[in-house]
Amino acid sequence: MRVKRDEKKTAAVMASILLCLSCLAGCGTAETAGQETETSAAAESGTAGEETGATAETAENEPEAEVSAEETEDESGEPESESADFVYLEEYQIQDDFDGGKEYALYAPKGGLNEDGLFYYQDHGVTFSAFVYKKSVEEDWLKCLDGKAGQTGEFWLEDLEYSDVNVGEAVKKGDDGYVILTAMGKDSLGTPYYEARLFYMSVRAADVGILLDMEVRECVQDEETAQLVDEVARYYDLDLSGFVVEDGTWAEQSAQDTADFLDIYEPEEGEPVLEKVEGYQHLGRLTLKLDDAGNVTHSVLAPMGRDTEAEEDEVSAMIHGVHVQIAGGYDDSGMSVQEILQEAADLEVELRNDPELHNRNAKASEVMPLEGQEKGAFCTIEYEMQNYGSEEYHKSAEIAWLIEVEEHYFVAYEITLWSMDYDKNTNSLIKELEKAYGFDLSKWYAEE
């Protein structure tokens, strides 16, 4: 599936070159490959309401054995003072919808949704839910936890995406109890990641508890995950040191798998197909038709990937932070390739210095003759592009060149490099472009 590219990124040198040609080749739309993000683990949490309803029926006619607030706090191991300086946790009041809306205090991550007797939070790689859990007075709390953990473990074992499933035994902690599960899951590309899950029962009466369910997945954790998990561990006096992966292999492997995924070339039905070329992993060959009769043609090399688009007179691809666009056109205005390219470069510098487009410090090199071409010229435009949603700027460059293939028939090339979008395969692609077109692009290699 292809989605429309960011208009702020659309290269203007190519557009300007083509506008200078009196008879333009068909300009294709610029699009980029969509990619699914990680799926939420929230679905299982949705059973909370059903489980509450089931236990409410069981406990409907049972006497309610009260436990004092002081006993609960002391025996459960929770801190004597709830005014600790937490950055990520705060106190909520969670309702028991089956007992007239009676409320119980709950410490949970800030910013969660708390309504209809259910608390839910998902951010920083952590999914945290809680609800009022009821049972019969005779039923053992640890058996309740073992049952809940067992159901989750069975679900993981039946799911082919999970392996190395480990279901711990429920541990008593004062009146409370908890159980920890771990497993290896797989992300949307099949890359393994570590997952840990905590079920904690905070007992409030002989037949009433608050069931906390916290899940941490390596594939979506960020720089704030560890501190959030640490605050949960401190408040509930638990050892959760194995929940956050600091030196796992998922991040490195996922980055490579994602880059490789973008290299999958599946041309749309009916569009021209790039042919593989010996000695190149990323580039394929396409012959452009520059006139309607097909008498004037030009062979080019362009990246093959999920976002490669080809027409009879144009090919473009955006992959690994590199955008390549090659298009043919006709012009009988009498302007030289240097004049056409100079006009296009001037327009591009003006555009890239427009503060509304979040670029700065744009400058163009001198337009120079293209070595090996009787009628060819090239130039380089460098600028800084602001990263999405931040104040950071990243170096960017456009290398544009124009060749007059036959009288009045031109081919315009442009390579645009956005360092903010570089990935594991960027350098190998740039080196192939150097090999194909003879430019030294080492200044814009990705840092390794």
Question: What does it look like?
Answer:
The protein is an alpha+beta fold and 448 residues long. It has 2 domains: 2-34 and 263-444, no CATH class; 42-245, no CATH class. It is 23% helix and 36% strand. The protein contains 9 helices and 23 strands. The chain has helices at residues 12-20, 42-45, 48-59, 69-76, 141-158, 225-235, 250-262, 337-352, 426-437; strands spanning 2-4, 31-33, 89-96, 102-109, 113-115, 118-123, 126-134, 163-167, 171-173, 176-186, 192-205, 208-217, 275-276, 283-289, 297-303, 308-311, 314-319, 322-330, 359-364, 368-369, 376-386, 393-406, 409-418. Strands 5, 6, 7, 8, 9, 10, 11 and 12 form an 8-stranded antiparallel sheet that branches. Strands 16, 17, 18, 19, 20, 21, 22 and 23 form an 8-stranded antiparallel sheet that branches. A hairpin with a 2-residue loop joins strand 17 (314-319) and strand 18 (322-330). Helix 1 packs across helix 8. It is elongated and about 95 Å long. The relative contact order is 0.13. The model is unreliable at 1-12 and 22-81 (pLDDT under 50).
Helix-strand layout with pairing:
Layout lengths: L1 E3 L7 H9 L10 E3 L8 H4 L2 H12 L9 H8 L12 E8 L5 E8 L3 E3 L2 E6 L2 E9 L6 H18 L4 E5 L3 E3 L2 E11 L5 E14 L2 E10 L7 H11 L14 H13 L12 E2 L6 E7 L7 E7 L4 E4 L2 E6 L2 E9 L6 H16 L6 E6 L3 E2 L6 E11 L6 E14 L2 E10 L7 H12 L11
Antiparallel strand pairs: 1-2, 3-4, 5-6, 6-7, 7-12, 8-10, 9-10, 10-11, 11-12, 13-14, 14-15, 16-17, 17-18, 18-23, 19-21, 20-21, 21-22, 22-23
Estimated radius of gyration: 30 Å
| Strand-residue proportion | 35-45%
Instruction: Count up the helices.
Output: 9
Could you list the spans in which at least 5 consecutive residues all have pLDDT below 50?
1-12, 22-81
Distance between the termini: 30 Å
Quaternary structure state of the chains depicted: single chain
CA-based shape: elongated
